[in-house]
Design a protein that fits this description.
Blueprint (H helix, E strand, L loop, with lengths): L4 E6 L3 H11 L4 E7 L3 H11 L3 E3 L2 H5 L6 E4 L6 H10 L3 E4 L7 H14 L3 E3 L7 H11 L6 E9 L14 H4 L3 H4 L1 H11 L5 E9 L27 E8 L4 E7 L8 E9 L3 E8 L4 E8 L1 E2 L2 E2 L2 E2 L7 H14 L2 H4 L5 H19 L3 E2 L1
Parallel strand pairs: 1-2, 1-4, 2-3, 4-5, 5-6, 7-10
Antiparallel strand pairs: 7-11, 8-9, 8-17, 9-10, 11-12, 12-13, 13-16, 14-15
């Protein structure tokens, strides 16, 4: 491995900026190029982080000599073409979630990673949060016994990201909140439960508020949007897992509920249970991890202290560590977990569309 990893970042929006900050904080990593169509923002990021090369087109970034890896932080419809092109050039890839618009595109990305023998990681940053990591350690230690039922959600009151943008176009985004934030919920839930095999899904989707121009920025005017609202604004899924375990998932950009964004996870086990809650708004911050258990016949419930937060920096650090670990480790980072998530999301959309249970 080279002494210094040379990285390019494609995308200068919020996600791309998180990647730039995280790579910039790691010794022995140089961001040598960034690509984005927002000219002023591109120039600002280059100046702030002393990045020598800036491109409007991602294809031009790929032609830069000496690159070792790229980050893909652009709208979902571009994940597959950029990732496959990078892997075919022998570059390692870190892609934003979801892996792709669907499992078919995701499978092509994983196949390209395996053929190239390079790392393909996907940004599932919420499994790196301190409360999730703490709960994972508690479950893995057997303190809850055998988990048999779990419910996980990410719900917003007004949280459609840029109503009328690419986010609300299924051809560009792949779906609505189920694909956007629901994939995070699905990921940390299956991660916490020990990666059980998904047997079947039964899902429902709704488009009740976004289609009327509600649930997003108050300045949004439905009639003047760039795209029609063609995705769901709320989804729920009943998921059967191997071993008789049940998982309920909810993902909503907009619904008439408490104004605070809520991300949570509840699990019932044979020897205990847990409730992880993270609610955030301008007025309220309500987070915590409660463990429910017994000491003999007496309740012994307690609040667990979270571990240190990881989020995007932890994802980027693990990506760099996987590259530096050498070829023997690269095969363990081929995007397979993200492909599993994509196929479950596909099954949920099929179930909702055809109003039936779908087996995987």
């Amino acid at each position: 491995m080279p002494a210094t990893l040379k990285v390019g970042v494609v995308g200068v929006g919020w996600a791309g900026q998180q990647h730039v900050k995280a790579f910039s904080a790691i010794d022995g990593v140089d961001i040598v190029a960034v690509a984005g169509m927002e000219t002023d923002l591109l120039a600002s990021i280059q100046a702030e982080h002393n990045i020598p090369h800036g491109f409007a087109r991602w294809e031009d970034l790929m032609e830069l000599e000496g690159l070792d890896a790229v980050s893909v932080a652009v709208p979902t419809f571009l994940h597959a073409p950029i990732t496959v092109a990078a892997l075919e050039r022998g570059l390692h890839v870190l892609s934003e979630k979801p892996l792709a618009r669907n499992g078919e595109e995701g499978a092509a990305m994983v196949a390209a990673a395996r053929k190239a023998g390079r790392v393909l990681d996907v940004v599932f940053n919420h499994r790196r949060r301190g409360d999730v990591k703490k709960l994972k350690s508690i479950i893995d230690d057997g303190a809850l016994g055998r988990p048999y039922y779990a419910k996980a959600s990410w719900l917003r009151r007004r949280g459609i990201p840029t109503l009328g943008s690419w986010f609300t176009n299924p051809e560009l985004a792949g779906g609505g909140p189920l694909a956007d934030i629901g994939v995070h919920v699905l990921d940390y839930a299956l991660h916490l439960l020990g990666e059980p095999k998904v047997i079947s899904v039964s899902a429902s989707t709704y488009s009740e508020l976004g289609s009327q121009g509600r649930g997003g920025d108050t300045n949004y005017i439905a009639a003047s949007s760039n795209h029609k609202f063609e995705v769901e604004d709320f989804a729920s899924a009943f998921i059967r897992l191997e071993g008789g375990v049940t998982l309920m998932v909810e993902a909503g950009w907009a619904s008439y509920r408490d104004p605070a964004d809520l991300m949570d996870f509840r699990v019932y086990g044979t020897d205990g249970g847990a409730e992880l809650r993270a609610a955030q708004s301008q007025e309220v911050s309500d987070s915590g991890l409660r463990i429910f258990t017994d000491d003999g016949d007496v309740n012994a419930d307690y609040t667990a202290e979270p571990l240190d937060d990881g989020n995007h920096p932890a994802v980027v650090e693990e990506f760099v560590a996987a590259i530096r670990a050498g070829e023997g480790e690269w095969g363990n980072h081929d995007g397979s977990i993200a492909l599993n998530r994509a196929r479950v999301i596909d099954a949920c959309y099929t179930s909702a569309r055809e109003q039936r249970e779908v087996r995987l």
